[in-house]
Amino acid sequence: xxxxxxxxxxxxxxxxxxxxxxxxxxxxxxxxxxxxxxxxxxxxxxxxxxxxxxxxxxxxxxxxxxxxxxxxxxxxxxxxxxxxxxxxxxxxxxxxxxxxxxxxxxxxxxxxxxxxxxxxxxxxxxxxxxxxxxxxxxxxxxxxxxxxxxxxxxxxxxxxxxxxxxxxxxxxxxxxxxxxxxxxxxxxxxxxxxxxxxxxxxxxxxxxxxxxxxxxxxxxxxxxxxxxxxxxxxxxx
Length: 237
Known about the structure:
Layout: H1 5-9, H2 15-24, H3 29-48, H4 57-67, H5 87-109, H6 116-123, H7 126-136, E1 142-147, E2 153-159, E3 164-170, E4 179-187, E5 190-196, E6 202-205, E7 212-219, E8 232-235
Antiparallel strand pairs: 1-2, 2-3, 3-6, 4-5, 4-7, 7-8
Helix pairs in contact: 5-7
């Protein structure tokens, strides 16, 4: 019963198991506390950012469900014994990881994610999870997005009060090995580099005077100042 707190908090238990768990709950203070915490977290995530999804998103998600395998293939045999977390901790970790996956999927899905490999890379980024979760919990959190001039799109998850933003890109054209995408924070004094766009989201801070975010194509090691016309620009205002 102790392992069912997460799925119960998400209203995902079959009726019979739900009834059994509810009979158990009044007699288990630790389960009651964990359910309350998970339900509060789910409620906070649900209202962290209010944005009307595009009309095509529902059809896209439903179509994706039919083509996405829900369970991984069973391995022939384990290569070696694996140390496991205690059952309760393992279930709690799985629930939190699932919540992070939902966050990333919602943020990027608002634009219409087409490339599952890019979403997979985001799912592997613990830094991306924590930063996006942190910013979405801010009372002034906002989502800014725009399409690139050469293809692809990007979203900025930003909190002015925390002076921080996470830049997420999707579907940008591939570049030669000697070139890279570089993100710039544009302020009254001009652009300053926020870093190169690699496999993980780019985190930018010190944004008190930020007016826009711009993405340019630069040499693979980066440039001290933009050398090309931005392929994508997102205004903060």
